[in-house]
Amino acid sequence: MSFDHNERMVLARLVDVLIPAGDGFPSASEAGVCREGLDAVLAARPDLDASLKDVLRKAAGGEPTQAIED
After folding, report:
1. What are phi and psi of 22, to 5 degrees?
2. How far is CA 16 from CA 1, 12, 22, 43, 47, in A?
3. Do 28 and 15 contact (CB within 8 A), yes or no?
4. Are 44 and 38 in contact (CB under 8 A)?
5. What is the pLDDT of residues 22-61, one digit of tens each?
6. Do the beta carbons of residue 16 and residue 32 sit within 8 Å?
């Protein structure tokens, strides 16, 4: 499976809650977590694909902070 643009955007909103930009450092999404970072993780652990897609599906359209708390 691959992650489409919309799924990567949902992931970007979630990871930026966990790792926001600050003190001259980029946020997680600015650092590429949702692009090459995600691709590298899934290349090493393809078994995480379906679970992550499920998390992103549940979080889509919602408030990112609430999705992280849930």
Report:
1. 175, 150
2. 24, 6, 11, 22, 24
3. yes
4. no
5. 999 999 999 999 999 999 999 999 999 999 999 999 999 9
6. no
